[in-house]
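Message: Just now I want nothing more than another pair of eyes on a protein record. I am handing you a single protein, as its sequence and its fold in token form. As I understand it, each token names a local backbone shape. Take your time, and here it is.
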Amino acid sequence: MALIQFQAHPTEDWLSWSCCSRSSGGCSLRKMLASRPSRKNLLLKPKSSLVCKASWQELAGVLVFSAIPFTAVKAIANSPLGELLQNRMLETKKAALQDSSKFEALSRQARNESLWYGEERPRWLGPIPYDYPSHLTGELPGDYGFDVAGLSKDPVAFQKYFNFEILHARWAMLGALGALVPEVLDMVGAFHFVEPVWWRVGYSKLQGETLDYLGIPGLHLAGSQGIIVIAICQALLMVGPEYARYCGIEALEPLGIFLPGDINYPGGALFDPLNLSKDPVAFEELKVKEIKNGRLAMVAWLGFYIQAAFTGKGPVQNLLDHISDPLHNNLLSMVKPM
């Protein structure tokens, strides 16, 4: 008699098959379940943590902490201190406006003389002849004459789209930095994170895990809360900045802060602490570099999403895998299994 036995992993049900030879008149299959828990019972059930898993005191503390910036700004603006700050700002605002007008004139002159602006600026097709849109005059940084959908024909809509692009470009650059740095620090052993890979952080929260900020045990803030609570905290934290962006750069004047620039480049000590805009020529070139790097960051995020969906790894690990074996770890190798 030929006997074949198979035993699965110790945590799974084991099977035992015995097959007789043809001379014994056939073959019988016997499945025996061990007295262990079934596999379904061994699967870890996700913790339900969409709303809250902490005490109401911790929840209240997180919500209050998130609301502090906006409420503090409103309180200062309506207080005698805010009135004092406004009066001091008004005393210097006239001179600051004159300086701002002079700087704007120098900036226009710098754009007229710059390689990156005007009719002689580089185009997205390079030397290839093409009928570029006449409404793209090269006045804004990063204008390479690309508008195949005609979205910039309306000047008002064009300025609005440019404002949105600058906003998303800056978020993309900050987000890319936040996605890469924890993974690099964890790889080199300089810092240990519970979840160094960017997409697994959100996934861990969906599973009900508690995350420590900066890997410091016990430093939870909103890390012990559910997704809905974290979303509420984010909304509270962003109320102030979004309200100020909606109102314009004048929104900070009740606090005695005058911003000499515009909505995209406010300037001043608050938004330009390194005084990078003191040279108009260099400042106009920095605008071009910013939008170019921001567009690259937005495209990079598209790559982060696709890589995470196909490989389940972080961008740094995917890069190292590709460098170690570029012939087998590339886009084509990911698409082939599909």
